[in-house]
Amino acid sequence: MNDDAMPAAARAITPKGSGREGELAQEIVRLYEAEPDLLALPRALFAGVGRLIDADVVTYSEFHHSSGEFRSVLSVEDDPSRRNQALAAFGRHMHSHPFWLGDPAFFGDRALRESDFFSEEEYVALPIAREVFLPSGSRHMMSIVMQHEDYVLTVGGHRVVGREPFSDAQRDRLEAYRPHVLRSYRQARQRTLAALTPTDRLRIAFPELTPRQLEVASWIANGKSNEDIATILGVGVDTVKAHVKAIHAKLGADGRLAIAVIAYTIPPFERMPPLWRIGEDVWAGHGPGRAAG
């Protein structure tokens, strides 16, 4: 691992320390050593957060503002139909308190617990508790919320009914872990983008391209002439020229060099869909709010 990937503050904390401080240092080092991309990051956080705050279930949710899409991944297997019911109920009740909204401005740098806002009697009477959390056995929860560019990331720990609330010490450890989660998230995005092939970049940034246009654009990016492409695809040169003209119009590119530049550089991020679509079939959705854990 390159030392530059780990902040000096993290390297200065020795994982050989004793007690809770040593446990936090170990989790920070583990997270940086894993060097996850966006697809591996949830699993790394499931393990680290689960150990750090002794959570029974860890949730990882991303909300993408431009598209309104989100994904929500849990550290345990669950029933998809039950998840959909819970999500619908969450959508009905999420505006009842800022804690449920996962607003970065409200959370700030804090790790927040449901017990910070509701007594035992108040919580069990809440519609969101009765319809979303308690039916799945989730009783206590604590979350951190981070924003990076067009994404909001929420990572939370849950404890089942019958267990004690998260302690102040556990809250403090999750708060101390938060900046490292955000840094790892930014690095994971960079790794994911850097691994994209020219064809991937064109496909993701310009979904309006047809499969054949994408194929032609990829060959252009590889320096092939219209005649070369016609031979490779087994079509006429005029057909290739028609595809090239359509590609220019859809990409806003003027000439073959412009197509190659677009294919070999990261396109404007605002044109990209959520990056979790790349390479993995994850549960996701579309709606006005973030996914419930």
TrEMBL record:
Keywords: DNA-binding, Transcription, Transcription regulation. Pfam families: GerE (PF00196). PROSITE patterns: HTH_LUXR_1 (PS00622), HTH_LUXR_2 (PS50043). SUPFAM superfamilies: C-terminal effector domain of the bipartite response regulators. It comes from the Bacteria. Residues 202-267 form the HTH luxR-type domain. The keyword DNA-binding applies. PANTHER family: DNA-BINDING TRANSCRIPTIONAL ACTIVATOR DEVR_DOSR. This is LuxR C-terminal-related transcriptional regulator. The lineage of its organism: Bacteria, Pseudomonadati, Pseudomonadota, Alphaproteobacteria, Hyphomicrobiales.
